[in-house]
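Our preliminary data section would be incomplete without showing what the modeling component actually yields. Below, a chain of 329 amino acids is followed by its predicted structure, encoded as C-alpha cells that our downstream tools consume directly.
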Amino acid sequence: MKKLVTLALTLVFVLTCASMASAGSEMTLKLATDAALDYPTTQAIARFGELVEEKTDGRISIEIYPSSLLGDEVSYMEQLQIGTVDIAKLSIGTLNGLYTDLQVFNLPFMFKNSDELWKVLESDIGDRVLNGLNDYNIQGIGFTDNGNRNFFTTKPIETIDDFSGMTIRVQQNNMMIRMVECLGANAVNVSANEVYSALQTGVCAGGENNVNVILTESYYEVAPYVTLDSHTTGMDVICVNLDLWNSLSEEDQTIMMEAMAEATVYDREIWNAAVDESKAELEAKGAIISVPSDEVLDSFKAAMQPLYDEYADKLGDWIDAINAVLAEE
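Predicted structure:
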C-alpha cells in the first residue's frame, strides 16, 4: 500500500509539472532522479526548477521525474547522453562508470567529513569534475549532498570479521565492489528499485547508503542493523545533456548555473537536518544503529590498503590535488 501511495503521488507530481509546463513555457526540460519527492536532493532540484522558471520569466521550466520513474541511474544516464533526458541527478558511483577519474571521490575514508568534501568541490577541482564530463556529452552544472554512506545489514556488524561471506549490494562500479571484498564480503549489483526485494528474498544480506535513503526506501524493515562507519562522503552531480547546453544562450547558461548554485546552498541547509531526523526516525521504527569504535574503524581503514595500492597510479594526481586543497588554511 505504501508503494502504491508513493507511485500515485509521483504520477500526480509529474502530471502537475507537465500541466504547468504547457501553460506557455517555450522550453520544458525533462529532469530524472532516482530519489523520492520528499528526499532533500529532490527538494533542492525542485528549488532549482523554480528559480530557473522565475529567472527566465517562464521561458524555461523543469519537469521532474522522481523515484526512478525513468529507470535507474545507469538507465537515465544513458538517456541523458543521447538527449531523451535533458537533466539528471547522478551519483559519483554511477558517473565514474564513464569518467573513471571520479573514482577518487569513492575512495573509502578519503574525507573525514562533509566539510572537507565541500571545501574541495568549491575549489578548482569542482570545475574539473563538472567540465570533465564533456567528453561523454554531459555538462555538469553543480552538486548536491549525497551524505555519508553506511552499511545496513540483516545481522549486526560488530567487527570486520562479521563481513566474512556476507553478500552486500553495491553500485555498479569496480571500486565499491573492491571495497566490500577488502572487508571480506561478496559484492552483488542490484538496481536501486530492487534492493528492498533483494534483501527480502536473500539475494543480498545488506547494502550501503546514507541514512536518508535507508529511511525513505524502508530498507531498515528488512535489514535493521545500520552501522555508521561513513566509509565514503560523497556528492551527486546535476548534469545537462551537452548538446542541449551548447544550444542555450550564454544568458540562459548563466541563469541555470546561478539557479543551481542557489539550490546547492539550500540543499546543504536541509541535508544535515534531514540526517538527524532520519536517524531519530530509524531508531523509532526499530532500526538498530551503531557507531564503530575507533579500533574497529581503524581495522576497516587498514583493510582498504590493497584498494589504495591498486588505484595509486591512476588517481595519484587527483589525490595529491585534493590533499593540497585540504591542507590550505
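The two ends are 52 Å apart (CA to CA). The chain is about 50% helix and 20% strand. Preliminary results of this kind motivate Aim 1 of the renewal.
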